[in-house]
Amino acid sequence: MNILSELSSQIGDRTEAANKRVAAKALREPNLLEQIASGLMSPDRKLAGDCAEVMTDVAAEKPELILPYSNSLITRIDHEDTRVRWESMHTLAEIASKTPENISTIVHKLVERIAIDKSVIVRDYAIRTLGEYGGTSTEAARQVWPHLRKALTLWEGKHAGKVLEAMYNVVSIDPSLKVDAKKIAKQFNGHRSAKARTMAKRLLN
User: Fold this and answer.
1) Domain layout of the chain by residue ranges
2) Rounded to an integer, what distance in angstroms lies between the CA atom of residue 54 and that of residue 47?
3) Which among 81, 61, 82, 59 has a CA at the least distance from the CA of 70?
4) Considering only CA atoms, which of 114, 120, 122, 119 is closest in space to residue 144?
5) In angstroms, rounded to a whole number, what is the distance separating the alpha carbons of residues 77 and 113?
6) Alpha carbon distance 141, 147 (integer Å)
7) Quick one: which of 105, 164, 186, 192 has the most CB atoms within 10 Å?
8) 152: CB partners within 8 A, 6+ apart
9) pTM of the model
10) 10 Å Cβ neighbour count for 185?
11) Average pLDDT for the chain
12) What is the DSSP letter of 2?
């Protein structure tokens, strides 16, 4: 079975329906993910984007199935195509807590994406990936904390809610960060973003 031929871009489907069907098949037959992984590396950006989307959907249900392909996904997070970047980053966010050894090696790349990527979605998922990884150990928590602090100052505070949510995840594994977290949270009690205000309250409590 050539599962790649069933993807949206290959059959002219402008919706997500075809890719959802492929993801459902891959969940039932995980061996199909080998083909999806090969498509992810395709020079055809639409095909690569479809494959990254399938991996995101599979990871949301069974992240363990995607772990063997984490290195391939990592190579796609600075792809020239925005959709390939955001779907690959989204997938990494889904599996980050289960593959900390791989995420630890790309913290600098995640930080770079947060700082320079033009896509809000890519930046959001890079922040989430840092938070998921940071929640795996005290060592990881302390590695990502200064980067999360920095992220609060970027893009005019647009990602404050996401960053504070990541901080909440990190603090749960390393209570020594609570004092700093509360100081930070107080600054966001009146933030324009409802999510930022909500997460600030959670950090304070």
Assistant:
1) 1-96, 99-205
2) 11
3) 59
4) 114
5) 8
6) 10
7) 164
8) 159, 160, 163, 164, 184
9) 0.95
10) 23
11) 96
12) -
